[in-house]
Amino acid sequence: MPPVISDADLWSEMKSGSEKAFSSLFMKYHVSLVSYGKSITQHHYIVGDCIQDVFADIWLYRKTISTPDSVRAYLLSGLRKRIARKLERDQIFKHATDIEHVEFSASFTVLDELITNEEMRSQVTYLNAAINQLSPRQKEALYLRYYQQLSVDQIAEMMQMNTQSVSNLLHRAIKQLRNLWKGEIPQLMILLVLTHCLSTDV
């Protein structure tokens, strides 16, 4: 098994001009970026172009950009901003002025083949329905926290909110889910739903 190269090392090699490292970063995060991009715009045809633009800028300015604390957060944030600018430029949202107008639109649905236990399937189905009752910003915060595994600080920067507001958003989302669930929700079940049951109606 080949050794696992860290994001920091790949980024450093990319900055030095390694096309292989650049390609590795693209391949590593492409699926996550497509998933997230299609979650924040119904205009799925622009997502691929926006991802290409993000990586094109990285390669073009590789000598001057600094190494981010989290490559994943950097790429997701860059894609979010790129999509917002694209939507504004194309006047899809005529009054859009910033990424506040980018709205998380994915829904969560059970993938039956991943769940063989009938009781678990019933519980996950119920949790899916509960999550889909949350606001778009609550769903996006949960998605970024549990699926993309970003820190609260990173989510705050991406969503242009302060850290306390993101903490409150996550707290209210979990509280709302618990109220609908009528009890404690196992974190493993939330992870199962957010990791395996994301649907963007592709």
From TrEMBL:
Keyword tags: Sigma factor, Transcription, Transcription regulation
Please indicate if the UniProt record lists Nucleotide-binding as a keyword.
no
> Per its UniProt record, what InterPro entries does this chain match?
RNA_pol_sigma-70-like, RNA_pol_sigma-70_dom, RNA_pol_sigma70_r4_t2, RNA_pol_sigma_r2, RNA_pol_sigma_r3/r4-like, WH-like_DNA-bd_sf
Q: Does Transcription show up as a keyword for this record?
A: yes
Per UniProt, residues of the RNA polymerase sigma factor 70 region 4 type domain are 127-177
**Domain of life here?**
Bacteria
Concerning Gene3D superfamilies, the annotation shows: 1.10.1740.10, Winged helix-like DNA-binding domain superfamily/Winged helix DNA-binding domain
Matches recorded under Pfam families = Sigma70_r4_2 (PF08281)
Annotated family = Belongs to the sigma-70 factor family. ECF subfamily.
Q: What is this protein called?
A: RNA polymerase sigma factor 70 region 4 type 2 domain-containing protein
Q: Which organism is it from?
A: Dyadobacter linearis
